[in-house]
Structure formats: C-alpha cells, structure tokens
Amino acid sequence: MWTAARLVTALCLAVLGYLASEVVRGLWTETTQFGWFNWVNTVIGFFCGWFIVGPRLGNGMGPGISLGATGAAALVFWGLFVQSVNEMVRLAMRHRFDGPVEAFSAIFDLGTEYGAVLLDGGFFILMIVGAIITGVLGEIAARNWR
After folding, report:
1. Which of 10, 32, 59, 109 is deepest in the core (most CB within 10 A)?
2. Nearest-angstrom CA–CA distance, 68 and 55
3. How confident is the model at residue 31 (pLDDT cuts 50, 70, 90)?
4. By C-alpha distance, which of 131, 6, 5 is closest to 69?
C-alpha cells in the first residue's frame, strides 16, 4: 500500500545511501573504479526504506528512531552483500576461483574486507544522523498523512 511514511523513509534512505557511497568513495584508493556504486546503493536505500522501515512506522518517536536505525543497518548489510556479490562475479569471470564453493565463500571474505573499510568515524556519524532523521521524518509523515 502506498503511504506517505513509506515514501518519506524510502527517499531518506535513498539519500543516505548516496551520501554514504560518497563517503566510502573517499575512504578507498583513488585508482578504484566504482561504476554504478552510488546508484546501486541509492536503490538499495530506497527499497530498505520502502519495505523495512515505512510499513512499521506510526507508534511514536522512540520506535520511529529505532526503525530508522534498523533501516540504516539493513542498508549497510544489503549494500555490502550486493557489492560483494558483484565483485565475486567480476573475479569469477576472470577465472580467479577454482570452483563454485570458493567463489561463494569469497562473497563473505569480500564483505568482511569491505566492512573493515566502513569502520570510520565519519561513516558511523553519517549513518547515525541519517538513521535519526529517517526515523523522525518517517514518524512525522506517518502521524500527519495517512
């Protein structure tokens, strides 16, 4: 069902996904080719806001902020997973793995490696502030527009 809370949280997490991608790009080496990195994370943020946060809002500011944090955590998880799978497929096309099991386990190795890059204070602050803003704006939308 289309609700204002879903739309607001989807847009907030989409913007958060884009901004987080820009921060991550700054943490990586300059020679890294990112391609569609920002836009993929923006779409992931939109879907996390639409399906995870938006439908559950409407129970007060405390739960709303908590749901914003849940959405931000889901954005990080799914972003890491999708980017790890993308890199695994890229490496698999270059015949870097001996078999499918090694390729599958590389997803988790790559996710751990990428997650270590996210252990940055600026990234954490951005995600916390973005989660709070998402929760508050989503709760306001759920309260005022039904």
Report:
1. 10
2. 12
3. confident
4. 131
